[in-house]
Every structure is written in C-alpha cells, then in structure tokens.
Design brief:
This protein has 111 residues and is an alpha+beta fold. It contains 3 helices and 3 strands; from the N terminus they run E-E-H-E-H-H. Strands 2-1-3 form a 3-stranded antiparallel β-sheet. The protein is globular, with a radius of gyration of 19 Å. The protein starts with 21 loop residues before the first strand and ends in a 17-residue tail after the last helix. 23% of the residues are buried. Bound molecules: zinc ion (2 copies).
Length: 111
Amino acid sequence: MLELRPNCECCDKDLPPNAGDAMICTYECTFCAACVANVLGGRCPNCHGGFAPRPIRPPGRALIDPPSTTRVHGSDPRCAAAALARDYLREARASGAPSGGSNGSGISGAS
Ligand SMILES: [Zn+2]
Ligand SMILES: [Zn+2]
C-alpha cells in the first residue's frame, strides 16, 4: 500500500491523497509535478529513478487506509536552493521594492 506522504519533499507543498499533481518514484519519494519538472529534471534525487503520477486514493478508502502524516522535506540540496529562492522571491514581493540603505546599524565582523 502506498504511504501517500502529505507533502512535496522539495518545496513542502501539501499533497493530499486526492492531489492531482503528486509524483512518486519507485521508493515513494514524493514530489509535486512542478518540482519534478523544474528542479529535479524528472529524476528522483534520492534513488535517481524516474517518477510516475501518484494514483488518487478514493475518499472512502482514505478513511479505511489513512494516508501517512509523516512529512519528509529537504533531502536534496537543489531543493534547499529552490526553497531559498522561493522564500527570497516571496519576501521581495512582500516588502515591495527591494530598496533600502544600510545605515550602519552596527553589524560588523569583529575579529
Ligand atoms: Zn514541490
Ligand atoms: Zn526515489
């Protein structure tokens, strides 16, 4: 039985049992379709195998055989880089213009 892990191992996106964009490798390393395409190049970073779309578990069966709740995240450095880039973009958008002067707030490397 598939574990149906609850999130993308790369970007930590939620992937519920009925997610249409969940991809798994033969070991059930679980990623979203966007990360498989844009970050991983279609290859699992853990076992170097390919991916297949994860079958959707019907809601009735999900009650009988509940999906895993163990989140797996951040096993690959490319994913860490992608997460950093995503956070950076999000902060840049949230703060508007990325302008700001350094007014000497005392942050200096003391030897
Ligand atoms: Zn992802
Ligand atoms: Zn794998």
